[in-house]
Automatic annotation (TrEMBL):
It is a multi-pass membrane protein. It comes from the Bacteria. This is NADH-quinone oxidoreductase subunit A. The keyword Cell membrane applies. It is found in: Cell membrane; Membrane. GO terms for molecular function: NADH dehydrogenase (quinone) (non-electrogenic) activity; NADH dehydrogenase (ubiquinone) activity; quinone binding. The gene is nuoA. NCBIfam families: PRK07928.1 (NF005922). It catalyses: a quinone + NADH + 5 H(+)(in) = a quinol + NAD(+) + 4 H(+)(out). Belongs to the complex I subunit 3 family. It comes from Jatrophihabitans endophyticus.
Length: 120
C-alpha cells in the first residue's frame, strides 16, 4: 500500500544523509589556514569604517523584505499547480484561484499602504 511513496522516502533519506555527511565531514577536510584577512569583517569589498564591539543589529526593513519575498514566493508555488491543471479543475478551480489571488493582493495592498515597500 505504501510502495508508491518509497521513492520519495528514499529521496528524503538520501538528501538528509548527504546534508548530514557534508556537515559532519567539513571540519576534517577543510583547510585550517587562518589569517588576519579571513578573520576580519567583510563589508562588500569596502574596508570597514569601525570595528563592531559586539553583535550588530540589522534594521527591521531587511527582515521585512525577506518575509515579504517568502510570502510572494510561496504564492507562485501555489499558483503553479493551478496553471498546470486548470482545465481539469473547471469553474470551481477558477473561483478558488480568484479568491486566493484577491487574498494575496489584499495583503500586498496592506503592506504597500503601511510603507513596507518604501526604503528610506
Amino acid at each position: 500500500m505504501l510502495a508508491p511513496y518509497l521513492p520519495i522516502v528514499l529521496l528524503f533519506a538520501l538528501a538528509f544523509g548527504f546534508a548530514f555527511f557534508s556537515v559532519a565531514i567539513a571540519p576534517f577536510t577543510g583547510p585550517k589556514r587562518y589569517n588576519k584577512a579571513k578573520l576580519d569583517f567583510y563589508e562588500c569589498g569596502i574596508e570597514p569604517t569601525e570595528q563592531p564591539l559586539g553583535p550588530q543589529r540589522f534594521p527591521i526593513k531587511y527582515f521585512l523584505t525577506a518575509m515579504l519575498f517568502i510570502v510572494f514566493d510561496i504564492e507562485i508555488i501555489f499558483l503553479y499547480p493551478y496553471a498546470v491543471s486548470n482545465k481539469a479543475l473547471g469553474l470551481f478551480g477558477l473561483v478558488e484561484i480568484i479568491l486566493f489571488i484577491v487574498t494575496v493582493f489584499s495583503a500586498y495592498a496592506y503592506v504597500w499602504r503601511r510603507g513596507g515597500l518604501d526604503w528610506d
